[in-house]
Write a structure and sequence with these properties.
The protein has 251 residues and is of the alpha/beta class. It has a single domain, classed as Rossmann fold. Helices cover 37% and strands 13% of the residues. The chain has a 7-stranded mixed beta sheet with strand order 3-4-2-5-1-6-7, with helices on both faces. Bound molecules: adenosine-5'-triphosphate. The site of adenosine-5'-triphosphate has 20 residues, from helix 1.
Length: 251
């Protein structure tokens, strides 16, 4: 199983939108896919029209008293399941730090590991923060994908993420940025796309345009390509999935 995470320290840059659309593309190709909504805001759970059945105590989850498999829900799409966000996940970070030093080593990786029996792709939709939880997500994921809006402030979060890796001696197998919400009428966006900063030399080529249709995902409570295959954003996500797939060793 490949485990990938969509992360950015900045909120509202397209982590969830990307995680949901990429999950749909993978599942649509017949790849058994599980998305774990680790953001207590629960946006990807909401977009897949799912909710957690009951509140799970993070402590019980981390100590195995509540088997994580019990939290998995089906979506309306074949090959695509979800662990919906639970508002109590906001305490996950605190609970991670409460575990004994030995016990807290790679707890998220340990929770994810058994899913490799039934899924080929696991997608982690991350909260916009640096924390013990983020640290463990980074250590668990084979690859990290960072949506960036082409602005200087957004690019700073890429540097900060790299610094966080260094500080915690995390070695991401792969770290890829890609641009989202690109508006080619804006000169800053055109310049950044034409001349991406050096630090993005391993960045993905696909840029997701800004388009109002993305908001309609909230009307349909579905990923974009499930109700629209033709829009430029939908086609860009198909292209992004092709590109992401090339970076994954299992596919
Ligand atoms: N390419 C796009 N074009 C237009 N709107 C977009 C695009 N990508 C995302 N959005 C919109 O921007 C908002 C934020 O997107 P999203 O929730 O995916 O970001 P996020 O990084 O996951 O946010 P958070 O950190 O709060 O979880 C949403 O309303 C979404 O519909």
């Amino acid at each position: 199983m490949e485990t990938i995470a969509f992360f950015n320290l900045k909120g509202g840059v397209g982590k969830t939108t990307s995680a949901v659309n990429i999950a749909w593309h993978a599942a649509n190709e017949g790849i058994p896919t599980l998305i774990w909504d680790l953001d207590p805001q629960g946006a990807s759970s909401w977009l897949f029209n799912t909710t957690a059945k009951s509140e799970t105590k993070p402590k019980k989850l981390l100590t195995g008293k509540t088997p994580i498999g019990d939290l998995v829900r089906s979506t309306e799409f074949e090959n695509l399941d979800i662990i919906p966000a639970d508002f109590s996940f906001r305490h996950l970070d605190h609970q991670l730090s409460e575990q004994s030093d030995q016990g807290k080593q790679n707890l998220i990786a340990k929770l994810v590991e058994p899913f490799s029996e039934n899924y080929a792709l696991m997608i982690l939709d991350c909260p916009p923060s640096f924390s013990l939880l983020t640290e463990q997500i980074f250590a668990t994921a084979d690859s990290l994908f960072l949506p960036l809006i082409p602005t200087h402030l957004s690019l700073r979060t890429f540097e900060q993420t790299r610094d966080f890796f260094k500080e915690h001696k995390l070695k991401p197998k792969r770290l890829h940025a890609f641009f989202n919400m690109v508006d080619r009428r804006r000169s800053m966006h055109r310049v950044m796309l034409a001349h991406p900063p050096k630090m993005l030399k391993n960045g993905l080529k696909t840029a997701i345009p800004y388009a109002a249709i993305v908001e309609r995902m909230g009307d349909y409570r579905q990923p974009l390509p499930a109700f629209d295959k033709q829009s430029t954003v939908s086609q860009a996500y198909a292209e992004l999935w092709r590109e992401i797939k090339q970076t994954l060793s299992d596919f």
